[in-house]
Amino acid sequence: MKTVPELFGSMVFDDKVMRATLSADVYRNLKDTIRRGKKLDLSVANAVADAMCAWAVANGATHFTHWFQPLTGITAEKHDGFLSPAPDSHVIMKFSGRELITGEPDASSFPSGGLRATFEARGYTAWDPTSYAFIKEKTLCIPTAFCSYGGEALDKKTPLLRSMEALNRQALRVLHLFGNSHVQRVVSNVGPEQEYFLIDRDMYLKRKDLIYTGRTLFGAKPPKGQELDDHYFGAIKPRVKAYMEDLNEELWKLGIYAKTEHNEVAPGQHELAPIFTVSNIASDHNQLMMEIMKKVARKHNLMCLLHEKPFAGVNGSGKHNNWSLSTDTGVNLLSPGETPYENAQFLLFLVAVIQAVDDYQGLLRLSVASAGNDHRLGANEAPPAVISIFLGDELSAVLEAIEKDTPYEGSHAQRLRLGADVLPRFNRDTTDRNRTSPFAFTGNKFEFRMVGSSDSISCANIMLNTAVAESLRQFADRLEGGEGDFDARLHELIKETIIRHKRILFNGNGYDEAWIREAVEERGLLNLRTTPDAMQMVLVPENVEMLVRHGVFSEAEIASRYEISMENYVRTVHIEALTMADMARREILPAVIRYCGDLTDTVNAKRKALPELACACESKLILRLSGLIDGIDAAIEELASCAEAKADRDSTEQAFYIRDVVLEKMAALRALCDEAETLTGAAYWPFPTYGELLFGV
Ligand code: ADP
Ligand code: MG
Fold first, then answer.
1. 65 with 79: CB under 8 angstroms?
2. The pLDDT of residue 610 is above 70
3. C-alpha separations of 430 from 230, 232, 673 in Å
4. How many whole angstroms from 447 Cα to the centroid of ligand 2?
């Protein structure tokens, strides 16, 4: 039995392995590429490929693949063997530098949103040396970016790397103004907390809705749901515990720092949080983590549900994207510092984030938009579709003192002069946790809580990084150019930024109806409740200009991503609608009809024996169920006919039609079926109920 330190990273071609297997020269060259984005020579690539191949083969690998993240939401792999023929009918295991650096998968079956005509089906993958290669199922996986023949990004990694570059560029300008000339690189870090449900696999297999759509499309509320809050942080059941232990081991082998695990609010719901790391690696790891969570579950005869809303009426699942900025000198730029300058610098980065979130609410909202996440955001559940920032009382008071030029009451009795005064340390205040805020400051990082549980975290971080890069660009332009006392100009800038963007700050209850009204009517914040609404934000000229200015997306790439998101939305709901109609027609109706038939037979038999019997209960049930049977039949017809309508229209028109018409018909059919469930004998019901699914592990 291996110890955790022995196990950890044992399947990763990481720094330790590189140091042990590469010559000093090659190692130094590769590190320069990793740290500073220096171009890699082919000779270095060849040496790395040799070492990688030898290491992978020694660890049981037979194949290699460029591992990438096309716009399907999951990862893709195209396996190639290391096996090469050698003289005398022998074989050798080999792999060249060129094979390491680039690949050429056929791109024609990956979504491109019109970026690539099928006759130019070639796509290219390019090695991301900053994310370590790893072995999974006897295959050496090389994290890569994926682009079209013309260089347009067809994946999620490319724009994420570009956004990190943009952020680095602008943050360095600002840091240099503060005299931090030794800092050479700024990166954004992410720790994504992943929520999920575990259910029994035998039950799962009895439900077509779970199989086809990842969520339940029917299900009456069970007598007990999450009312008692007795699951949150409760004792973990043995079967779940065994799953978590197994999962941790698999993740540790891949160098993923899975750390905390606990039960969540809903029954059957859990959370897994890795330790934070650089955003592109965090994103790769999160994709891997989701894949492995599902795979390990099957070994325990469980199913891991990553859908944002697997059960109506029960909390959905999200991914809390904990985000911060740090320098290569080890400073967290979102952590209040020790000296007046560090504090002024902290406040400047803080207001940069505030401005970014206010100016680009629309982009942040659309970065988390999906058919699944629509059931969480904007549906009286955490968090709301309106974006606001929670800062906590202490930091809010500091900003208010700066804004109003009033004394800060915390520890100073004087007015704060940034750059001259030491700010009080605002420690993370545990009494101050606000769980309803979509974007909360938690001491030295921001927690963006709107990301959906099944989504890649890339999109959210692309928008966050780029929007903050834009604030920093504006700040640097202003501070670099101006004349006069730097401290005074800095103070002015921070003060102005607070005044201009304080509408986005909100410390209260984000679920409150009154807040949504205030946010929209008085503060003019966006309330984009559904994916089709949110996606329109990518067509707003200022948003497009900003993304293009920082080189994160080209206009063509933006247009293609819009198209893909709308198509995904349409397809997802379409599959749900067809699955509903099928289950209602072929499973629910027959069950209810059979129960009704048995009731009728019973009445007939009883009356035959005793003609004076009223059979009041049976008769009442037969009447109600017969009404429901007719209602369900009609609702299926309506849903089926509208699900197919508008298929010839463009995806935008289809998406709005689905949102306004199809989803309503689905809700109507569901309501009737759920009512029928509460009246039909348990033995007749064709698939496991909510109670069985949620409490069945
Ligand atoms: P919580 O109380 O919200 O669970 P934790 O301290 O457990 O907070 O952290 C939650 C997540 O935030 C973890 O994934 C953790 O690694 C991550 N995290 C902590 N510090 C930072 C940071 N500076 N930048 C990014 N993520 C961070
Ligand atoms: Mg958290």
1. yes
2. yes
3. 22, 18, 45
4. 7
